[in-house]
Amino acid sequence: MNAIGGDTIQMLNAGVKEAAANFSALVVGNDAPNFSAGANLMLVLLEAQEGNWDEVDLMIRAFQNSTQALRYADVPVIVAPGGSHSVAAARFALHGDRVQAAAESYIGLVEVGVGLIPGGGGTKEMLARAVDGLPSTQSDLLPFVQRVFETIGFAKVSTSAADARHLGFLDEADRVTMNRERLSCGRQRARA
């Protein structure tokens, strides 16, 4: 299911550094049937059961730092999610510069479903997107903030890339690929 753990975070951080040093962009994606089921919650649970709160804090901070590294990378970051388990795609998509999503991408922030607040920076980015571009005369932000909190609080997951756009996980500039095989081809061309 491609759960995100320490190795994934290290690879992501190394990719950001390598792209900045030697490439003109970074594409975050894979050819697996599922992009990622999200953070390795079993690891978090084991650390919590042992009372290793400093370790839990370190894991969350490392995840947040890696998504922030995507946001502030020296090169453009393109996220290419696809598959039925694209939960982590939300964090990466919200922090990337552009998204090229497979049409069947199921994207969401679902941690509330297991009693946790999403901790990878997605909540912050959803709120920022909700109010970005509003006129300065807009004094009542509650309807925009409420929509984000409902999406997160009800652990809504998109049923498609179009639905992900409607829920706020993708924006109008992000693109959708109907044929998932072409999503892979696009990544190969981007590397060339």
Can you give me a brief rundown of this structure?
The chain has 192 residues and is an alpha/beta fold.
What structural class is derived from the secondary structure elements? alpha/beta
Radius of gyration: 16 Å
H and E order: HEHHEHEHHHEH
**What is the terminal-to-terminal distance?**
28 Å
Low-confidence stretches: 185-192
Let me know the largest β-sheet: 4 strands, parallel
Binned strand content: 5-15%
Residue-averaged pLDDT, rounded?
Answer: 88
Q: What overall form do the CA principal axes indicate? A: globular
Structure summary, number of beta strands: 4
> What is the number of helical segments per DSSP (H or I, 4+ residues)?
8
Helix content: 40-55%
Strand order of the largest sheet: 1-2-3-4
Key descriptive features of the protein:
4-stranded parallel β-sheet; single chain; 8% strand; alpha/beta; 192 residues
Architecture overview:
The structure is a single chain. This protein is of the alpha/beta class and 192 residues long. It is 49% helix and 8% strand. The chain contains eight helices and four strands, in the order H-E-H-H-E-H-E-H-H-H-E-H. It has helices at 6-22, 41-49, 53-71, 87-95, 122-131, 142-153, 161-167, 180-191; strands spanning 26-29, 77-80, 98-102, 175-177. The protein has a four-stranded parallel sheet, sandwiched between helices. The longest helix is centred in the N-terminal third of the chain and has 19 residues, at 53-71. The protein is globular and about 50 Å long. It starts with 5 loop residues before the first helix and ends with a helix. The model is unreliable at 185-192 (pLDDT under 50).
